[in-house]
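ok posting inputs for the NAP job
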Amino acid sequence: MSKPDFDRLALIGIGLIGSSIALAARKTGAAGHIAIHSRTAETLERAEELGLGDSYHADAADTVRDADCVILCVPVGVSGNVAEAVAPALKPGCIVSDVGSVKASVVAQMTPHLPESVHFIPAHPVAGTEYSGPDAGFAELFENRWCILTPPGDAGPDALARLTAFWQRLGANVETMNAEHHDLVLAITSHVPHLIAYNIVGTAADLETVTQSEVMKYSAGGFRDFTRIAASDPTMWRDVFLHNRQAVLEMLARFSEDISALQRLIRYGDGDKLIELFSRTRAIRKGIIEAGQETDAADFGRPHGKHDDDSD
Ligand code: NAP
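and the output
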């Protein structure tokens, strides 16, 4: 196996994404030593039982000492607190990154705490499932998925190249863009779809008991695909909506306008317009399959296992 991209990698948070990074880094030889921290003893012990790393630390600052790359894998709302906790122990020249589903807020929270001697390059692997915790991870999670880096203007090109090489080694395709643009794009491709799923499942949950049991029984009609997304981690998603508020509200306003327009088409029986829209949307799905981000197998190509892809 060729030389690791990082001799020592520190993962702060070892849930779905942290454990998948650990497993992928081990499998591909992308990291020499993998140091792991989680805030609870229970999660840390489970990570050790699963053999996800080489050292396990109850203290976040201890984890990052001597690390060449530190990746925060925690809910976006606590990025600032975690950055503050690890900052004094960061090795000069090390790369500090994260995996948060929102970028501008993470940058605003973390930057004030980080010393100038480190390279801060935020990242978001657009890959995931509705499962959480250290048991949920798998080494193939990032294969052929996008990892978006949002380097600040003054990010060192060498550090950027190293982090890019690391993610590529984990199987991801790497793209760079600015944090605000990331947040706008992800608002429509991920955040608003999750909100719609939470909403439709919530509406069904509020129905009378009899109707509710029928919802379960006949869920293959489309509803169950929403329930998979709506089973995603509540804390993570609370933080996503609170920290990408502006872009989500902007996309939601457009969504509401468009759904009102659809309402009118149905009310006035305008079948031609409905066909026009449904044909355009079919073409979008074809494009996603052609881009290798979904299969065209029946039943959404999902094996109904823990590796169902949610790509947020
Ligand atoms: P997860 O499986 O729920 O794991 C979360 C980790 O963060 C755990 O180690 C947990 O520690 C720790 N944590 C939770 N609350 C914390 C707090 N208040 N302070 C310090 N640590 C805390 O979550 P995940 O799915 O890996 O998500 C982690 C990050 O990845 C999030 O920022 C999310 O936006 C991003 N992301 C998620 C997905 C996805 O599909 N899930 C995809 C791409 C990016 P304990 O278990 O010890 O409490």
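notes: The chain has twelve helices and nine strands. The longest strand covers residues 6-12.
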